Amino acid sequence: MPRFDAILFDFDGVLLDSEPIHCACWADVLAPVGAKLEWEDYRARFVGMDDREMLRMIAAEADPPLDWQILWAQFPAKKAGFRQRIQDPPFLPGLPALLERLSGEYKLAVVSSSSRMEIEPPLAARNLRRYFQVLVTGEDVEHHKPAPDPYLLAARLLDARAPLVVEDSPPGIASAHAAGFEVLAVNSAAEMPDRLLTCLSG
Ligand SMILES: [Mg+2]
């Protein structure tokens, strides 16, 4: 019997090398309202965090401090910028073969705090949407990662008893642990396939 009956993938930084794009889109729309965001800071502190939480921190740390609602008001522009840039989605070349192989043996889901609009179109554009029975996105739960809710919902929808979670960020890893699931923590989308196959064969 395989150890796991499902694989629950985080999206950004696990299936898609999209975190640099998210950061650049936020930086573009925050600069005109006086807030600065740099990649090193984003990578170290904000990857995997809910956008509103990130903006509250950026607003509080600005000098002088800013009203975070003014930053949040830029969200539609950030989303539009992301949609523009993600038209050529940075998936790994080996991802279709990996998903083809895994989907024969495991139920697969994407579990992300990003909006469905940021996940489903890029997957569909590369004909990868069909590998996932379930997408749990930011709209689907009230409490985001690090709360356990997104991973619990995905497991329930898949009827999975022993899912493996693949994550790249501290809030995501905390969410999966809070749900009581095993986690494979990866540093980047690039190393994910090898790490995952090693984990599954171990
Ligand atoms: Mg991530």
Short synopsis of the structure:
With 202 residues, the chain is α/β, with parallel strands linked by helices. The protein has helices at 19-30, 39-46, 51-61, 68-72, 75-85, 95-103, 120-125, 149-158, 170-179, 192-201, and strands at 6-9, 107-111, 134-136, 163-167, 182-185.
Write the layout of secondary structure elements.
Elements: E1 6-9, H1 19-30, H2 39-46, H3 51-61, H4 68-72, H5 75-85, H6 95-103, E2 107-111, H7 120-125, E3 134-136, H8 149-158, E4 163-167, H9 170-179, E5 182-185, H10 192-201
Parallel strand pairs: 1-2, 1-4, 2-3, 4-5
Helix pairs in contact: 1-5
Bound molecules: magnesium ion.
Structure, described:
With about 200 residues, the protein is of the alpha/beta class. It has 2 domains: about 5-15 and about 90-200, HAD superfamily/HAD-like (Rossmann fold, 3-Layer(aba) Sandwich); about 20-85, DNA polymerase, domain 1. The protein is about 45% helix and about 10% strand. It has a 5-stranded parallel beta sheet, with helices on both faces. Helix 1 crosses helix 5 (about 75-85). The longest helix has 12 residues, at about 20-30. The protein is globular, with a radius of gyration of 17 Å. It starts with 5 loop residues before the first strand and ends with a helix. The structure holds magnesium ion. Magnesium ion binds near residues 10, 12, 13, 48 and 168.
